[in-house]
Amino acid sequence: MEKMKKALSNCYLSLIVLFMYAPIATLVVLSFNSGRSRAKWSGFTTDWYLEMLADDTIMAALRNTLIIAFLSALIATILGTLAAIGINNMKSWSRNTVMSITNIPMLNADIVTGISLMLCFIAFKISLGFHTILIAHITFNLPYVILSVMPKVRQSSKDTYEAALDLGATPIQAFFKVVLPELMPGVTSGFMLAFTMSLDDFIITHFTRGAGIDTISTLVYSQVRKGISPTMYALSTVIFLTVFIVLMIGNYAPEWLSRRKK
Amino acid sequence: MSKNLLQLQNISKSYDGQLILDDLSLDIHENSFVTFLGPSGCGKTTTLRIIGGFEKPDQGRVLFDGADITDLPANKRQLNTVFQKYALFPHMSIADNIAFGLRIKNKPESYIKDKIKYALKLVNLDGFEKRSIDSLSGGQQQRIAIARAIVNEPRLLLLDEPLGALDLKLRQEMQYELIRLKNELGITFIYVTHDQEEALTMSDYVVVMNQGYIQQAGSPEQIYNEPENAFVADFIGDSNIIGGVMLEDYVVRICGKTFKCVDAGFGTNKPVDVVIRPEDVEIIEDDDPKAILHGEMTHIIFKGEIYEMECRSEDGFEWLIHSTEMHEPGKKVGLYVKPSNIQIMNKPESEDEEALGVEE
After folding, report:
1. Is B12 helix (H, G, I), strand (E, B) or coil?
2. Beta bridge partners of residue B311, listed in sequence order
């Protein structure tokens, strides 16, 4: 009976994983298919990857995507960590209010965020381009960082900060030597989350980018209209793997680090 | 007479319009073990935080060795704090925790290493350098917190209820450790607690606080034997507090009987409060001519070293009595109190003192 139950639950789990990953598996398989057909396997090839690497527009888009993801995640992490500490020190009424306000961009439909950001940039006569995408990404990344740093801030007590001051540290030294290391697990996972959110964003980037600049997602979108080339499968595979690896690091690095310390 | 290390002058502090400290003044001598004692919310921790530099007083000055440090930030003060919840840095090893203050001051590493060794020896945790914080018990963490503070060679060590989280046995052990440390190091200690036994055991000087006022300050003996008001008498140990009338010098009337006492200067026919400690009430034979009061035993509890008993005297007052001799409930007895064991106190004059809620 016990065995049956176990087998059933394993079966169920496998089915879920299968349905979740079947499309991605198809994509990965097709990226190695030498023919252009989506239905017929005509042999293994890495040509599409080579073609992708040789294509300047794709490489430029990849570079933009990575730079924007890194910068926006970095800036959002710094701002979000400071914000979380500030919010935590507020009185409970204003803390709850500010937390709900910061949560709204997360619940908001991307298309609303995208259009409103675009209108805002135009209204303030900011020409659309790399910098507007960056600002937009920082904006939607902030709440994710705050949300992942906040629990750590709430856990850490004011005592250790005061103890550092008591032992002669200036407030800045106390922050970097004592407060920040305690928040680090939350800060790292906030950064990883922001990085992946930025990496796979399409809608908001689509509205806030100017002519002449593409990220991978907008490039794929414009290619689809022309008829999709298998280089796009290769590119999508690369994006998937990047996100996958970043998430794995984000999930396992803190655990692994703390285990090694002991 | 040693000199004053720390002086608090007319300190007032309020939070959200609520007065926590009201015009508090206090001198602390070099090399003394001073305890702030009081119920929670009496302002003792706030006073400690003002001394530590974590709070600014609304009014008043803090002088350290004669110099005004009221506006000096915490990191510039020559004193260290042992926090209630230890506040050790969880991401650092024990050695790094202890070295924190010295590294901030850029001391050479060889000096730091010696200091860590010395401090760990002092708190009886030799060889713990490499261990992590979460592998320690509460008592050990407490010792590390003390070691971390004393390696900086402060002139004044502030301890905020440092033994509050420990169990009874460990607490008693740590009390002796702290006294030993204080004597070995020659540092002035300011200790905050709500535990009156702890205060009496460890300190040279006890400051009893309630509702932002100093109720009484003095040696443990003074505080225990000569409480100045009903709050102190009630808070420090068990006591019988009775409303009475001072008929003239050395004569007081309580429970409808006249007692000799050793206090004078209250005037004639003045209402007073009288404190008699339970161990000072002597139970004698009912027909003993020495007996001032007569009554009947009502309750008895065995407490280990003593019996805690209650006796109702003729006027209806329930006397709390501690004695090594047992007297069964129902027994008729006589009561006697030596004149020197009767402590006379002024009745509360202000409304603030009245608010202390002493049972008559």
Report:
1. strand
2. B297, B319
For the record, the structure tokens of B123 come out as 């708190």
What does the buried/exposed string (b/e) look like for A76-86 if buried means 16 or more CB atoms within 10 Å of the residue's CB? Answer: bbeebbebbbe
The tens digit of pLDDT for each residue in B65-85 reads 989 999 999 999 999 999 988
Tokens coding B358: 């002493």
pLDDT in tens, B186-209: 899 999 998 888 899 899 999 999
Could you tell me if A64 and A130 are in contact, meaning their C-beta atoms sit under 8 angstroms apart? yes
Interface check B83 vs A, CB under 8 A: yes
CATH fold for the domain made of A58-154+184-261: MetI-like fold (1.10.3720)
Binary contact (A261, B132; C-beta < 8 A): yes
Of A159, A165, A178, the CB nearest to B74: A165
Q: Are B150 and B185 in contact (CB under 8 A)?
A: yes
Smallest CA-to-CA distance from B301 within B328, B277, B341, B268 is with B328
Q: Is B346 exposed, middle or buried (0-12, 13-18, 19+ CB in 10 A)?
A: middle
Give the pair of three-digit tokens for residue B180: 């030993």
ipTM: 0.78
* Structure-derived torsion over alpha carbons of residues B15, B18, B20, B25, reported in degrees to the nearest 10: 100
Q: Rounded to 5 degrees, what are φ and ψ at B321?
A: -130, 130
Q: Which residues in chain A are closer than 8 Å to B54, comparing Cβ atoms?
A: 162, 165
Longest dimension (CA), chain A: 72
pTM above the 0.80 mark?
no
B355: confidence class by pLDDT, cuts 50, 70, 90: very low
